[in-house]
Amino acid sequence: MDDNQEPYWKKHLTGIIQCVFGFYCCVIATLAYFFPRPIPTSQSAPSGGAAMSTTYYMPWYLWLGIVGLALSVMIPAMVKMVRGRRERPSKLSIHSANYAAVDGDGRSYDVTSCLQKMVAGNSVVLDIENHNFVVEGKNFVQEDPKPGTAKRLQVVYSYNYGPAITIERLEHSRMVLPEDSLRSEIEFLKASHFKELKRLEHEKNVALAKAADVMQQQIEGLLTPLQIEAFKLAKELRDFAEELGPFPDIPNTGTLTPGTPEHDAALKRMAEGGEARNRWDRNLSHGYANRDFGKKVSSVFHRAGEEFELEYPPDMLSRSAEIGPSFTSYGIPKLAQEMEMIAIWINRKQRNEVNLLS
User: Fold this and answer.
1) Which of 4, 15, 162, 249 has the fewest other C-beta atoms within 10 Å?
2) Residues whose CB is less than 8 angstroms from the CB of residue 4 and which lie 6 or more positions away in sequence, other chains included
3) Which residues pair with 50 in a beta bridge?
4) How far apart are CA 39 and CA 241, in angstroms?
5) Residue 55 has pLDDT above 60, yes or no
6) Percentage of residues in the chain having pLDDT higher than 70
7) Contact 323, 294 (CB under 8 A)
8) φ, ψ of residue 98 in degrees (nearest 5)
9) Domain ranges, ordered by start, for the chain
């Protein structure tokens, strides 16, 4: 028998007591039946006995056996019933547990009943050390399974009538059960909250899109399609100007004396500035052509002039927009400003204002 297992007589003590009393009653009753004791006086029973017939009475020691047998059955049943009312069954069930060396050598200890007794409520917490497997004064790990090597605790358990889960924890670590079930619940809550956040974000985006559509419809109700096109083109031009960045500056040598380190450094900066300006000009020229700004600006300029009979100032860059932009940092923002002004002039024209350009 394993040293860690509870002795048979302790585990079945109640049943053994009941068997002893039952056997005692059977023997006494048999002897009393086959060897009856005569009643001293007719229709009366001697002191200490109960009359059963004219020739037999139940002796007091048989009564004692019957009472003992009845009590051995009733008391454990009542105790179990009271405990069952006070203690609710734990959701955590320990099916098996063993403590041994990681490599499988050495001694293996069955610590199932130890962990079962350690369960408090619906959980158990254990710092895994050789000396911590002690419950009710009993040491379930009396010796180190294999000194000088790593040990592990393997537990098979289930939680809330779920499937059996097998876990292993190393010596000197902390085991918390139901660790895996709690982790699953946490992950489930995280996933639920994530789904809820995604749903709220989707509803927010839908609401913003609807608000934008309503605002767009309101704007379209106030502005003509050509005005809206002019404002959109102005924004595209300003975004392009911001993408280009400022027009590169080229320093000059000024009054620096040729041949000095300062003069040479200035010449180097001039060369770098020239290269930066050439690169800026190339980006401007290609970007302007690739975005078809010349055709778009010219189209708005001439359509507004034709449909609304606008008279433009002679210095507007939009007149030559299809040829190409003004190759300075002034050109693109100036075209954007002119598109906005055309949209405003259309509005003034619709209100029959006399001085459109003021």
Assistant:
1) 249
2) 109, 110, 111, 113, 114, 140
3) 58
4) 130
5) no
6) 77
7) yes
8) -140, 150
9) 8-86, 92-177, 223-350
Element (H, E) at 59: none
Structure confidence by residue, pLDDT tens digits, 192-220: 567 677 777 888 888 888 877 777 665 55
Per-residue pLDDT band at 188 (split at 50, 70, 90): low
- When comparing pLDDT for 272 and 356, which is higher? 272
Q: In angstroms, rounded to a whole number, what is the distance separating the alpha carbons of residues 250 and 238?
A: 24
- Structural tokens at position 47: 């002191």
Distance of alpha carbon 150 from the chain centroid: 33
Q: Say if residues 100 and 153 touch (Cβ distance below 8 Å).
A: no
Instruction: Calculate ∠ Cα 53-56-58, nearest 5°.
Output: 105
Residues 130 and 196: their CA atoms lie apart, in Å, by 47
The pLDDT of residue 1 is: 46
Higher pLDDT, 74 or 104: 104
Cis status of the peptide bond prior to 248, with omega within 30 of 0: no
Q: Spell out the residues 6+ positions from residue 324 whose beta carbon is closer than 8 angstroms to its own.
A: 285, 288, 294
DSSP 4: T
**pTM for this entry:** 0.39
pLDDT digits (tens, 9 = 90+) for 287-308: 999 999 989 999 999 999 898 8
SS (H, E, C) 160-189: CCCCCEEEEEECCCEEEECHHHHHHHHHHH
Q: Is 18 in contact with 73 (CB distance < 8 Å)?
A: yes
Helix axes 293-307, 331-350, angle to 10 degrees: 20
Q: Assess whether pLDDT exceeds 60 at residue 44.
A: no
Asked if 58 and 66 count as a contact pair (C-beta separation under 8 A), the reply is: no
CB within 8 A of 134, min separation 6: which ones?
A: 140
Average pLDDT score, the chain: 79
Count of C-beta atoms within a 10 Å radius of residue 349: 15
